[in-house]
């Protein structure tokens, strides 16, 4: 009975902690069971306030560790994920990859674009930042749209596109756009790919790491950047490894 009472009190206390994501919720629940185990096996009772403080510190450390991984040296990214090699295209065809990154705290969306020729050489890249509070789906669709526009304006056609958002690809393939914010963007994408015969394919995150890193980089950039036959030195190791 006492254990259940403590767990109920801990749960009530933890419910007031402003966790921003599912990781925070899971970690918050974890602290409740940690306190329970300490009581059962060691006889140690942690008061509600101490448990809440410990949970907040634990979650903050977890999130900081995640941020350090994202912004760490590119060598650590190469170690953290398996390298997926470039899939050679038909001669004369270009392929671009896009990705989006979101910073909820600053209401920012980052867009990363990388374009390669049929031999795998980078012929264009871009980092773009938007002041917006987009959902992940809208952000990914926006990144794809902006990637198409960049490639077309640079004259890099014929073209094929890849994104690591399966939901965006599914919406495009179904041929109809829902009545929502993402539906408007999907409609614009659909118009472009039909006009210019651009196939859109799904790519695993591991095959999209250059665009992913560019999207993260764009969040710290003060302006939109566009490169032709070049790319930021930050992603050079990933480009060469891919």
From TrEMBL:
<feature type="domain" description="RNase H type-1">
    <location>
        <begin position="97"/>
        <end position="217"/>
    </location>
</feature>
<dbReference type="GO" id="GO:0003676">
    <property type="term" value="F:nucleic acid binding"/>
</dbReference>
<dbReference type="InterPro" id="IPR002156">
    <property type="entry name" value="RNaseH_domain"/>
</dbReference>
<dbReference type="InterPro" id="IPR044730">
    <property type="entry name" value="RNase_H-like_dom_plant"/>
</dbReference>
<dbReference type="InterPro" id="IPR012337">
    <property type="entry name" value="RNaseH-like_sf"/>
</dbReference>
<dbReference type="Pfam" id="PF13456">
    <property type="entry name" value="RVT_3"/>
</dbReference>
<dbReference type="InterPro" id="IPR036397">
    <property type="entry name" value="RNaseH_sf"/>
</dbReference>
<dbReference type="GO" id="GO:0004523">
    <property type="term" value="F:RNA-DNA hybrid ribonuclease activity"/>
</dbReference>
<dbReference type="InterPro" id="IPR052929">
    <property type="entry name" value="RNase_H-like_EbsB-rel"/>
</dbReference>
<protein>
    <recommendedName>
        <fullName>RNase H type-1 domain-containing protein</fullName>
    </recommendedName>
</protein>
